[in-house]
Write a structure and sequence with these properties.
Structural class: alpha+beta
Number of domains: 1
Largest sheet: 6 strands, mixed
Distance between the termini: 105 Å
Helix content: 40-55%
Order of helices and strands: HHHHHHEEEEEEHEE
Strand order of the largest sheet: 1-8-4-5-3-6
CATH class: Mainly Beta
Strand content: 5-15%
CATH superfamily: RlpA-like domain
Low-confidence stretches: 106-143
Number of strands: 8
Shape: globular
Mean pLDDT: 73
Radius of gyration: 29 Å
Length: 228
């Protein structure tokens, strides 16, 4: 006859306590994991990606504010377009782990001197070598001769707008051609200004892709030239 081996009462209690301890520990680990706080969003000062997106957001918000302050017949359409761009930038901020809605108006720190530059033909003529070389290009008395560097010290980011490669500017009229070179990777693109923005040169998505560094939404070291 086979004899069944039975566990004593004390052994049963010990096994039950062990199982409860393991289960309780697992539940504690799961609870601790579920209660862990998500990482805090990165600010513009902590990430180049976030800074680029915040700069683009600030440029578009400034453009919208300027249009509302000085409206014309097309302002409502322009504002609606830029509000869609703002929404897209905020989606990119969220996807990149950035603080959603953070706007870097500091992107315009180099801009206050820019109008003085663009309205400063005497300063340009104070350097005989450059105007003399580009005078035959027939600039027609514009702010900058063809082939001349403009927007010194400006950073370049994207507007978030689609379409063929193009730029927008607060200094150059539609039809102006600008060559933008990213000095960090020596990539350049020549684009036509098609609209107004809140910065000297703001590239749309297609143009920015031609000169960007992977994962970056801001060109800190940019060479901008008026070529047509």
């Amino acid at each position: 006859m086979s004899r069944r081996r039975t566990l004593g009462t004390k052994k049963k209690i010990a096994l039950l306590l062990s199982a409860a301890t393991v289960a309780g520990g697992g539940a504690f680990v799961m609870a601790s994991t579920s209660n862990a706080s998500p990482p805090a969003p990165k600010s513009a000062s902590e990430s180049t990606v976030c800074l680029g997106l915040a700069t683009a957001l600030g440029n578009n918000q400034k453009f919208i504010a300027d249009q509302r302050a000085n409206p014309d017949a097309q302002s409502e359409a322009r504002i609606a377009n830029r509000e869609a761009v703002v929404a897209e930038i905020e989606r990119k901020q969220e996807a990149s782990g950035c603080a959603v809605g953070e706007s870097a108006q500091d992107s315009q720190t180099a801009q206050p001197s820019q109008p003085a530059q663009s309205a400063q033909p005497p300063a340009a003529s104070a350097e005989p070598s450059q105007p003399a070389a580009s005078a035959p290009a027939g600039n027609g008395g514009g702010a900058a001769a063809s082939g001349q560097q403009v927007c010194n010290g400006s950073t370049v980011t994207l507007s978030g707008e689609g379409g063929a490669p193009a730029a927008s500017s607060n200094q150059f009229p539609a039809g102006t051609k600008l060559k933008v070179t990213n000095l960090d990777n020596n990539k350049s693109t020549t684009v036509e200004v098609t609209s107004v923005s809140g910065s000297c040169a703001l590239l749309n998505n297609a143009a920015f892709e031609q000169v960007r560094e992977p994962g970056k939404f801001l060109i800190r070291r940019a060479l901008i030239e008026k070529v047509g």
